[in-house]
Automatic annotation (TrEMBL):
SUPFAM superfamilies: RraA-like (SSF89562). Residues 1-22 form the signal peptide. Keywords: Signal. This is RraA family protein. It holds the Pfam family RraA-like. It comes from the Bacteria. The lineage of its organism: Bacteria, Pseudomonadati, Bacteroidota, Flavobacteriia, Flavobacteriales. The keyword Signal applies.
Length: 312
């Protein structure tokens, strides 16, 4: 057997083992398994192994557009990181944070029983849909796949929503529904991207695993991915590409501001700005950055870093 085929088989077997273990135990995927799935992340991690993208990057990510993030990921070969079709609680509240992933499945009594029994032994309290909430840290986003269930698929109401926001200061993304829209809307700063809203209670759904790879519609999501949720939809940014997405967005933003400024002044024609810039325009752009460094909508430190890397 060829070495590449052997390596592929081992990878498939390990991923299968991860999913089977999660199904049997109904608990957090082990640190070793998360490390295996996220080898390109070289930064800080949580105790559970999840990549811990820096708070500064998360804050700057809020200004990134869906199109910018999507474009960077496409250029890197990641074609399955966006999902649309949500019914957000608020259109104007951005959700950004590190994904804590959860997989739910249609209820099967024999599996659900052993998962609940194992959770009790581990000291878990309450219904299984509250277990992930107990694990949230500030800056996390509760991301759950519950197979798009709407009626009887309401993963949270306003009580759990308040608990989520108290712990994470962000929100949720559910391939499922939620209830208590009126109560949830009163939580300032919280947002929920869900498939629908329904007054029913959660029934015939079982928790299968926490912090395992999940599918959110057309997107594959790993624990620690950075969630960027805006009214257009949700982009799940692999942790090792989060800073690149942010920096690229900031450069695009600065170049757009410069171009608009110079067009208003009549210094360049639209044809000059919309095409590849000449060396003269690039040099002018660097000078413009230095002259306006204290007033631009990008951190001063980032502009200084950009200027260090430029030729002009």
């Amino acid at each position: 057997m060829k070495p590449t085929l052997i390596k592929y088989c081992r990878t498939v077997c390990l991923i299968t083992f991860i999913l089977v273990q999660a199904a049997v135990q109904g608990q957090t995927t082990s640190k070793e398994q998360i490390l295996f799935l996220t080898p390109q992340w070289q930064g800080e991690r949580f105790v559970d192994g999840r990549p811990k993208v820096a708070d500064d990057v998360l804050e700057r990510m809020k200004n990134v557009t869906i199109e910018e993030a999507w474009g960077v990921l496409r250029n890197e070969g990641y074609h399955n990181q966006f999902e649309g079709g949500w019914q957000p609680l608020h259109d104007d509240v951005v959700v950004v944070g590190r994904a804590l992933t959860v997989q739910y499945m249609p209820n099967r009594p024999d599996v659900a029983t052993v998962i609940k029994e194992n959770g009790t032994k581990e000291g878990r309290i309450g219904n299984t849909n509250s277990w992930p909430i107990d694990m949230l840290s500030e800056g996390d986003v509760y991301v759950a796949d519950a197979f798009g269930k709407i009626v009887d698929g309401t993963l949270i109401g306003d009580n759990l929503g308040n608990s989520i926001y108290a712990k994470s200061k962000t929100g949720v993304v559910f391939n499922a529904s939620s209830r208590d829209m009126e109560g949830l809307s009163e939580i300032e700063g919280f947002n929920a991207f869900v498939r629908g809203w329904h007054p029913s209670f959660l029934t015939e759904v079982m928790l299968l695993g926490i912090n395992q790879p999940i599918r959110m519609g057309a997107a594959t999501v790993l624990p620690g991915d950075v969630v960027l949720a805006k009214k257009e939809g949700v982009v799940f940014v692999p942790s090792h590409l989060a800073e690149k997405v942010v920096v690229t967005s900031e450069v695009v933003r600065l170049r757009d501001l410069f171009g608009i400024s110079r067009l208003k002044e009549g210094k360049y024609t639209p044809g000059q700005i919309d095409n590849k810039w000449t060396d003269e325009i690039e040099k002018d752009f660097s000078g413009w950055l230095k002259d306006h460094i204290d007033e631009l909508p990008v951190p001063k430190e980032q502009i200084q870093e950009l200027l260090k890397k430029r030729m002009w």
